[in-house]
Each structure stands twice: as C-alpha cells, then as structure tokens.
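Morning - 2-acetamido-2-deoxy-beta-D-glucopyranose inputs below, output right after.
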Amino acid sequence: MSLTLFVLLLSISLSSILGQSPTLILFAYAQELSDTQVNSVSARLEESAQLSWELGARAQAILELNATTYSVFSNTRLPPASNVPQELKQPLQIYFAIAQEILANIPSTSDGARALMSDGSAADPASNGITVLLANWTGLDNKNVDYEAAARNQLDFLFSDAVPRTQEGAISHRVDQLQLWSDFVYMVPPFFAYYGVLTGNRTLVREAYEKIRLYRQHLRDTRTGLWKHILLGTAGNDDGYWATGNGWAAAGMLRVHATIEHSEYADSFKKEKEDLGSWVSEIHDAVYKHIDSTSIFPNYIDRPLNVSGNFYDASSTALLAATVYRASTHLQQHAFIRHAEQSRETLFSLNPDAHIGDDNDAVSPFSGYRHFTPEGWLTPVVNPHSYGVEGSRSAEGQAFVVMLHAGYNEWKAAGRQGSAGGWSRFALRETVNGCGKSLLCLIAVIVLGFGQALYLSV
Ligand SMILES: *[C@@H]1O[C@H](CO)[C@@H](O)[C@H](O)[C@H]1NC(C)=O
Ligand SMILES: *[C@@H]1O[C@H](CO)[C@@H](O)[C@H](O)[C@H]1NC(C)=O
Ligand SMILES: *[C@@H]1O[C@H](CO)[C@@H](O)[C@H](O)[C@H]1NC(C)=O
Ligand SMILES: *[C@@H]1O[C@H](CO)[C@@H](O)[C@H](O)[C@H]1NC(C)=O
C-alpha cells in the first residue's frame, strides 16, 4: 500500500507544481509501459519473429518505436532522407539486419520476378518490401548488395502470372489458389504505395488504393460493417469476422493513407485519402460495437465466447487500439479513443489483486501484470500460425504491443485529442483496489477525485 499512497500524494504535489490534472500523472504511473517493459516486449518480439509477415510486422514496429522519422506516420516528407542521421544509425541496425538476412537467403537477384522469401502466401513476404526499399534508398552495405533488384523482383512477382488474381485485378493472398485474406491489406498495399512514392510512380500509388478498394468490396460485410477473414478459395475459407484481420485491414489502410499524405501525391489523391479514412472509421465503428466490459476482443468479433474457436484475444485488441490512436493523430478521428484508452489501460495494468507496490522490478518488469507473463509475452493470444486456436507466444502480438505503445505516445504528445481528460471508471476502480484496506489511501483518492472534478470544471 505505502507505494500507492506515495504515488497518490506525489501526484497531488506534482500536479500542483506542474499545473496538470492529477489523473494524468496517476495514469502515467499506472497504465503506461516503462522503457524497461517495452524493451522486454521487444526482446520477445525479436526472439519469436521468424516467418515472413512476422518480420514485416517487427520491422514496422521498430520504425514506429525507435526510428520514427522513417515511419510513414511521422510528419516527415517522403521520400525520407537518404543519409541516415547519426542518431538513427544504431536504432536502425536491427531494422536493416532483417533486410540483410533476407537478401542472404535469396539465391540470386538477377533472375527476375521472385518473392523476397519463399512462402505459401503471395502477399506476406511483401511485408518486408519497405525494409528492402529503405536498404536501397539509404545505400546500405555500400551498395554491394542489390537491394533495389530484390525489391523490384518482389514487385514484379506480385504482378506476374505466378500469382492468381480476380478479373478486376485483386491479387491473391495465396500462391496455389485464388483466395483473398483480410491480412493482405497490411502486407501488400503499403509496399506498393511506398515503392510508388520513392520512384515517383503514380500508377503504383494508385494501385495501393485500388487493391484495398477491391479487397474491401469482397471482404466487408455490408450488414455488420465487419471484414470477413478469407474468401474465394477452393479450400480453407473462413467467413468469420476475425478480429486480427479487421486490425490488419485498418492498419494497412492507415499506412497507405499516411504514405500518400506525406508525399507529392497528397493533393492529387484527395478522394482516395477520403475513402481510406472513412474505411478505417467504418471498421472501428463495426468492431467496437461488439467489445464487452473487459475491453478485450474475442478472436471472432461477433461470436459468443463459449463457442469453439473463440476466446479473449489481447493481440487483436492491441492492434485495433493502436489503429485508433493513429486515426486520431493522423485522420482527426477521435470517436473511438475512449474504447482504445480502456483497452490500453486494461492491457497495461496489474492484476486486480496485485497491489501497485508488489511489483518487483528486480525480478521481472512484468510481475503481477494481467496481460503479460513475467517474461513479457502478451496473453491471452490467438495462435498466430493457426487462427482458430488459442496460442501462447505470438510474434505479431508482441509487435502490436510496441505499435500500441508508440501510437499512444504520439497521441499523447499531440495533446490527447478525444479524451475527456477525466478519471476513467477503470482507473478509479483500479486505484481503489490498489488502496486495499487503507483508509488514508481511500481518502486520498476521494480528495484527488474532487480535485480533478474541480480542475476539469474550471
Ligand atoms: C528499441 O530500442 C531499444 C533500445 O535500444 C531496444 O532495446 C529495443 O529492442 C528496440 N525495440 C524494438 C521493437 O526493436
Ligand atoms: C534505389 O536507390 C536509388 C538511390 O540510391 C534511387 O535512385 C532508386 O530510385 C531506388 N530504387 C527504388 C526502387 O526505390
Ligand atoms: C510503375 O510501376 C509499374 C508496376 O511495376 C510499371 O509497370 C510501370 O512501368 C511503372 N511506371 C513508370 C512510369 O515507371
Ligand atoms: C453459450 O452461452 C449462451 C448464453 O450464456 C447459451 O445460451 C448457449 O447455450 C451456450 N452455448 C454453448 C455451446 O455452450
């Protein structure tokens, strides 16, 4: 208890010194990840990311957290600097190591169209396309390795006859059959858009939008607004509203929007940007209708939890919340911030029965956390290699936590738009729980609550 009380008193004094709402400072203590915690999540991400799209998601997470000026969400004009600034050389080392490893495993870059990695998915390897493009752009390895050819081959592969497509031109997510997966929107269109912006190829930027438009036409259910997971194939379709798939779609659209927005095409793609923005909010509107009082999504959004194949999934919850913060800072859409805040506070909080002061940093940065194991694995999560089954370690889930943390921090820095600024019911309940049986602590909470109400009313 004593630490709780200390934090409460500290927040009162700090708030008077800083002229800030005490809640903000309390929040800062209770529901944000520390650097140590984010590094622990990042370490588990690095250990577990092996498959093509896991590396692609990890690459994006590294940019969003540690090299933000190279992330499309930063307010930097695209194309980015070709000379990597000194302070980013070290953070980008592990990022470019991904491109180096991928290239080391390609037998030859001189033989035309081919994917960056061999994979049953036509789309997933392309999630590493931007990493390889940036390796070329910044002159990695003194141009002794042909990153440009590798990126071009990946692009050509997607447009080649090796990959099936629908009559209107929607590229298949799979190589062996024509099949559309919601995941595609994260893997391919951001690569097309980035490629187009780097090479001044307007057609390619337009393709990024066009592929999303076609995918939405097939996968979005007009009644619920939710995206179905997998359609059109001869085997292995899944017409359920997979939560992670809805997150992939929203996150992919946000990246394409941001890429266009920061490029020379910002003015000439107004209608496309508008569509992308409204398609993102359409997903948020549809998914958050179904979230229950736990603020954690089930694996299949509209199915009861007692149905087989359904369970609470912290992984999609983190991704979707991350997209809400990005939509707020980037698209000025704030309607779902309250939901994202509740999900984030829940994901980043201690167990109700673990008092704040019980956390022992020396043992584990995550001891007593509700949604992390002591080693820093997000939990519970869908098995990332078998989407209808609960798993235990998810590389993509680890990446989503990093994206959530990064997206939240930028939203906070931009002035927390869309938040009432008040003490959420969640935070109040947690703090009262944290007080245990201490009367003094409860009194402090009441005083703080009144202080805050007063603060907000003036
Ligand atoms: C970000 O940088 C920190 C400090 O170097 C590092 O520990 C962490 O692993 C990096 N995060 C990611 C996602 O790579
Ligand atoms: C590769 O980098 C060079 C600059 O070094 C640039 O001129 C070229 O357009 C880049 N290629 C791609 C596909 O981005
Ligand atoms: C743009 O990219 C597409 C797809 O690779 C290609 O067919 C086309 O020739 C490119 N256009 C220009 C002007 O380079
Ligand atoms: C799931 O729960 C609902 C409502 O609690 C109940 O009506 C239904 O029979 C349950 N289904 C299964 C498969 O247990």
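Note: The first helix runs from residue 2 to 18.

O.
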